[in-house]
Design a protein that fits this description.
six-stranded mixed sheet, four-stranded antiparallel sheet
Length: 169
């Protein structure tokens, strides 16, 4: 009798472990499918990085490159990000930029299709350090809910401008 109980318990434990393993695999598949239904444009579904770019006459430039998370849906962006704030370790840098460039040209953003925008800073102005940029992405018809953030060192000043989103990194 002791042997029968041990056998039944072992079989039951094996069956439960197998079922639990199958449940995890199914949950993983469901999660993967669910992830493919979210937009790359949502702030939680992309990363953004600030890097120095080539200078032009009288201006420093920084490139903000957005990269979509895997398994997200492509979306359309247009124009310069709005509500741009420059931060240095969480404190506002006190510079309010203006948009420049075509505000109506749409670009596709998604996995394998990074986008970028330019931060143009007058060289002659006294700069303020920043290590983060907060911004709201725009679509051809409005704005993406939520605020995106980009990390990287830069210097901003009065007269700073934000270029329109463009295709490529």
């Amino acid at each position: 009798m002791g042997m029968s109980r041990k056998f039944v318990v072992t079989v039951a434990a094996t069956a439960l472990a197998g079922a639990a393993g199958m449940g995890v695999a199914q949950a993983s598949t469901t999660t993967h499918t669910a992830a493919a239904t979210v937009s790359a444009c949502r702030p939680a579904n992309h990363t953004a990085k600030i890097t120095p770019d080539a200078a032009s006459a009288g201006h420093s430039h920084y490139r903000v490159t957005l990269t979509a998370a895997p398994n997200t849906l492509s979306c359309k962006l247009a124009g310069s990000p709005s509500g741009v704030r420059f931060l240095n370790h969480g404190a506002k840098a006190g510079v309010t930029p203006k948009a420049y460039g075509s505000q109506s040209t749409a670009v596709t953003f998604g996995p394998g299709h990074p986008v970028h925008f330019d931060i143009q800073v007058p060289s002659a102005a006294a700069g303020k350090k920043a290590n983060e940029v907060a911004f709201t992405l725009r679509t051809p018809d409005g704005v993406i809910p939520g605020e995106s953030f980009a990390d990287g060192s830069l210097s901003v000043a009065a007269g700073t401008q934000i270029g329109a989103v463009q295709a490529g990194s």
